[in-house]
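Bug report (template v2)

What were you trying to do?
Predict the complex of my protein with FE3-S4 cluster.

What happened?
Run completed; filing so the output is reviewed.

Input:
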Amino acid sequence: MKYKKIVLLVRRSKVSKRKQIDLSIDKIEEQEKYIEAIHRMNEGLFNRTGYRKSYFCTTFGCQMNEHDSEMLINMLEAMGYVQALSEDQADLVIYNTCAVRENAELKVYGNLGHLKSIKKKRPDMKIVVCGCMMQQPHVVEEIKKKYRHVDLIFGTHNLYKFPELLESTFNRDKIIVDVWDVDGEVVEGLKSNRKFEIKAFVNIMYGCNNFCTYCIVPYTRGRERSRKPGDIIDEIRSLVKDGTKEVTLLGQNVNSYGKTLEDDQKISFAQLLREVNKIDGLERIRFMTSHPKDISDDVIYAMRDCDKVCEFLHLPFQAGSTSLLKKMNRHYTKEDYLKIIEKAKREIPNLAFSTDIMIGFPGETDQDVDDTIDICEQVRYDSAFTFIYSKRRGTPAAKMLDQVPDDVKHQRFERVLEVVNRISGEKNANYLGKTLEVLVEGASKKNEAVLTGKSRHNKTVNFTSGDKSMIGKLVQVKITDPKSFSLNGELVK
Ligand code: SAH
Ligand code: SF4
Ligand code: F3S
């Protein structure tokens, strides 16, 4: 099969805020026409042959990426596609990619390589690659050169255009590339069509302005843009009407929510939490991620005052050493960070903490790692995500000359991991004999008779003597057997 390449590089012209609102409605209506047309085509096929086209979507990145995949899946289902049992059997394969670390990128290339032989056998299979990796021009070039069996490439700013882009791949042997190199505007009104979800992600803002020197996200997601509070509240109300009990408000730095809003709409993140807390029928509110430089006392007070906001704070510190934090462009010191934690612990009893830690940033010394371990010991995290620094092309840290050798990075990583795991095990052990409120999510994968859910502290709790009618409900569970990464207990009748 021969592939021609079309490269559509659309540069969005600056439009006024007023105009953006009208444009959003038009854009969604336009896409709905494509959804209807593809749906008609798929129904026709089904009526003639009894066959339904299927999709398989793999998400490589963070919660935001996962939420984007949910949107894509919603669109696909509205177009009449059903989920395939496996990637190899699917008519449409989507990779929603992540660029944050090299490993995530290598996996995508590996998977694309695997699909080559499958597509040879099934040439009608469509392969779509989207998400953060596609915002990097060298990645798109690589795919166009080495993975010519790909049908469609698009980026993070034009997800809403997926139906139109998909349609453009039909009956055409071309790689369609549509990557916007500037920030997408906030497009509202995407039919979410979500199925009943006990827990749902809700974007409150897009992009990031922080440019931590190691991080690719500001380049792949563009500058910060906040959604209007009314749109967020409407979305949550509609989710709750359909049965959702818990929402996670998403943004790369939710603490700076509201900065891009017009004056008559402007509210802070703390105020947004208080507004969401008023929604009847909603049981729990979570949020991520918080940047320590922007978390205000008001956010801590809102967490304390709002009964639905869970006692859980994910506050990445990355490194304990103030000099390394400066090199990372994080804008806080070790002492600043510890002060926030102290305040939060004082205001909110039983607050659970999690964090992100990076090991091996350029110039890191053993003493810097001691500082990181010192923060872990002082805060006592319930859980922590530890990452080995990965060089990202185009970021300032990639050009720093004092890169840490791989073997040293790995040794330090093991040292930190040991501390992190010990502390989270100790914290879990404290729950023995305590009764926790659990939002039941389903049956355990390993044992159907065991139900599983999350506590307000975001602990996974498995319990016996419940029944499936409890799924989606809040129950009380007494912890009888705390494990390192989860808690086992019994339903309190
Ligand atoms: N916006 C969020 C984090 C987004 S990325 C925040 O600021 O907290 C999630 C985590 O990936 C980061 O917290 C960081 O620990 C890690 N990360 C980002 N860039 C990385 C890199 N180049 N190498 C290794 N880990 C990285
Ligand atoms: Fe990356 Fe820093 Fe922005 Fe988080 S705050 S997404 S780590 S640049
Ligand atoms: Fe998320 Fe990865 Fe993009 S962490 S924002 S999917 S680079």
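What did the reviewer find?
The chain has a mean pLDDT of 91. The pocket of FE3-S4 cluster (ligand 3) is lined by residues 61-62, 64-65, 98-100, 132, 216-217, 220-221 (CB under 6 Å).
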